[in-house]
């Protein structure tokens, strides 16, 4: 593993620990001023800039204080020059949610860049799999697959 990969892995692990601890300063420290984040909850167009990013965390921390988990399960990092990306799977949910859907994972993708010699997160994307597809009718599923093939 390269030194850059190790630095990025440590950055992401520190970030996840800060999220789990409800440490807002720790969550923000390694993010770019012009961060773009697409998250599970609205706003649907995402948030842009460190101030908007900061505002998304207090509601999550309040929810998490009710006993929810936020733990990295797997993490892969790819580095190329002054840019890198990482993707991870996390156990994220309240105990009851995790008991009802133990296989469900939060998907995390990060885009990083080197600024003044250090790595910062410039793009962050969180998502959960859409489990509603099991409720789709066969006709609706065929329509979606046809659109996807085009």
TrEMBL record:
Q: Which Pfam families match?
A: SnoaL_3 (PF13474)
The segments labelled Disordered in the record are 128-150
Q: Check the record and name the SUPFAM superfamilies matching this protein.
A: NTF2-like
Q: Domain SnoaL-like spans what residues? A: 8-130
Against NCBIfam families, the record matches this protein to: SgcJ/EcaC family oxidoreductase
This protein is called SnoaL-like domain-containing protein
């Amino acid at each position: 593993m390269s030194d850059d990969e190790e630095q990025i892995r440590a950055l992401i692990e520190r970030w996840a620990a800060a999220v789990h601890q409800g440490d807002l300063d720790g969550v923000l420290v390694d993010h770019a001023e012009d961060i773009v984040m697409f998250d599970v909850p609205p706003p649907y167009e995402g948030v842009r800039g460190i101030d908007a990013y900061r505002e998304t965390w207090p509601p999550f921390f309040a929810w998490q204080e009710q006993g929810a988990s936020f733990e990295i399960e797997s993490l892969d990092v790819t580095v190329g020059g002054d840019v890198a990306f990482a993707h991870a799977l996390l156990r994220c949910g309240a105990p009851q949610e995790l008991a009802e859907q133990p296989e469900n994972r939060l998907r995390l993708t990060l885009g990083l860049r080197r600024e003044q010699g250090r790595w910062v997160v410039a793009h962050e994307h969180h998502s959960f799999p859409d489990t509603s597809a099991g409720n789709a009718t066969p006709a609706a599923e065929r329509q979606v697959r046809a659109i996807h093939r085009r």
